[in-house]
Amino acid sequence: MLQPFRESFALLPQYTEPVFYLALIPFIIIFIRGLYKHYKLYGRYLLKEVTKHSGQRLKVFLKYGLLQARILSDYFRGGLHITLFIGVAVLFIGTCIVFVDHTVEKFGGKLLVGEVYPFIESLLDFFGLLFVLSATMLLISRIIRYPSRIGVRVQYTLVLAGLLYVGVSGFLTEGLRLFLKDVPWSGYSFLGAAIANMLSYFGIHPELAHNLYVALWWSHGLVALALIAFLPYSNLMHILTSSVNIYLSIPAEPIGKLTTPFNIKALDEVEELELRIGFRRTGEIGWRDVLSVYACTDCGRCEETCPAYEAGSALSPRRLIQSLKSSLEKGFGDYDILANGAIKEEAIWACTTCYACFLKCPVLISPTKYVVEIRRAVVFEGRMDERVYPLVSNIARMSNPFGMPEYEKERLVKELRGMGVKILPDDGDAEYLYWLGCAAFYDPRIGKVAKTVIRLLKEAGLSIGILSDEKCTGDPARRIGEEGRFQEQAYANVEKIMGLKIKKIVTHCPHCYNTLKNEYREFGLDVDVIHHTQLLSTLLKDGRLRVKRRLDIPAVLHDSCYLGRVNGIYAEPRNVLSTALSSRLLEFPRSKENSFCCGAGGCNYWYHIPRVKREALIRLEEAISAGAKMLVVECPYCLAMFEDAARVMNLENFIIRDVAEVLAESVFE
Ligand code: SF4
Ligand code: SF4
């Protein structure tokens, strides 16, 4: 009995095989040429990097690469992407097996023969069908859901259409082959057999079928080869680059810790140096950042979540990364991405460094990092936008972003001393160092929040101290790109703090919290840092603070970027509020990790980059739509932004409070 077997180049003219192999040559040359470009830009550095931290890296790769964890958070698009990915992978492996089988056949052997062959045919038909369905739905969803983006992402749509053509023409070719030459095992190729039956039903002429078969066979092969050959030049390259990018991303560092391009103490010891930080020319971008740019799939998830984009500023993180990519394509060297208009400088300053984009990116790219690197280069050259200049000048002259003199701080220090707060180091030791942050000193509304927190901590019997000469942490300096100034302030503050006898640092400011906790370690700080909501939650749990009444008001909590998304603190502020409120705490549709920035971050609090509608207004409207009469915050800058937005919206009866203020009303009646 005839055994099932795979027949290569079946029913094709004899010249087909040699012509096909000849036709392969230009495709191979194009493919290798494209790959070489990637090798020169970053590939040559990969080898020495891939072997490091391999255990940790494999875990990351498994989660975000193979299991595509972030892609699957959007069930519809994620599901389609994963089925497309599996379909392409199985069909590619199937094609390779067919090729090997044909080569082995030339030496008298055969792989695709016997019982295994029909099984493989069924498998390929099944995954081919999955592939065609997902490619069709993705294409339709792109056209229906994102019609405005089709224009700017023609290449992506063409690639998707090309893949779809390969899938459909593959099935049609199979159907025509089975129609022209039926075999006993044809039923295993269930889709091809169905097409063959349909052709018989319609009584198609065999000669026409054969001509169609030859034409489709060639077009199927050539489109597939073109997709592979142009892979290094197209978005399809992300199959390789995004996998490598994910593999190389070790989430060992806290999200909110910016890179340290140099250390000022080490610089002091170098006699002559040529220092450049950040980048604005393509040649200044490090290979690791180049790789990330090429890993971008242009999916737009970052753009969809970006507050600055939604507010209508010039910034789109997707465009930022794609513009860097097109700049790199123009040449790796002196090409200036700002001067040539590839990226608008205004977009760089509009970023609130909220990291929403990073946490959504399926291939772990951080547009925030690129923003900071470009800011660093611009500030280093001293040629920044005139709207940003006053902030940089304030930091340089007064060492604080408000540009206020030191003596302005005395008023609050005096008031706190009157509340029994120790002024350190003069007044001895304290259990907790309360870090006030610049806003508390210079904005009476924020000073009031600090006093409320301290009143609660004193009520719980804690020993609290403040620094006699607290200086800005340098968070704004670092985020605006003034790395040297940041480090000066960090070293000065660390020296003072480490000279104290304290157990912990507590602060009501998530930005100070992030800098002290995540960035100061590198400069010698070795003390636990907590946010006031964490401490208040513990004090309530331990019974050291008790509420006397519970407030009955529909309230919603706004998760600040630097406490929530960046540092993962979501439960404690909610615990405090659920104790202080008698009514159920409402939730924003976009809460916790998906929270929407108030618009102050990334130094935007201190300058004004145009927006169509400010983030704080969008968020306040969301709070009202959620049914809230009170918006509760955990960050002084969120408080200031929302109070300002409420004034703009004439919301006289809408309440905006810090978590501590809500608790204080319950504790002190
Ligand atoms: S950090 Fe925030 S504001 Fe900046 S690009 Fe990302 S999402 Fe947009
Ligand atoms: S940066 Fe990430 S999220 Fe943004 S378009 Fe590229 S791949 Fe998508």
> Mean pLDDT, nearest integer?
92
CATH architecture of the largest domain: Up-down Bundle
Radius of gyration: 31 Å
The residue ranges in which pLDDT falls below 50 over 5 or more consecutive positions are none
Secondary-structure-derived class:
mainly alpha
How many strands appear in the DSSP assignment? 8
Q: What percent of residues adopt helix (DSSP H or I)?
A: 55-70%
Quote the CATH topology of the largest domain.
Fumarate Reductase Cytochrome B subunit
Please give the alpha-carbon distance between the first and last residues: 94 Å
CATH class of the largest domain: Mainly Alpha
Shape: elongated
| Biggest sheet descriptor | 5 strands, parallel
DSSP strand (E) fraction? under 5%
Please list the strands of the largest sheet in the order they lie side by side.
1-3-2-4-5
How many domain modules?
A: 4
How many DSSP H or I helices? 29
The kinds of small molecule bound in this structure are:
iron/sulfur cluster
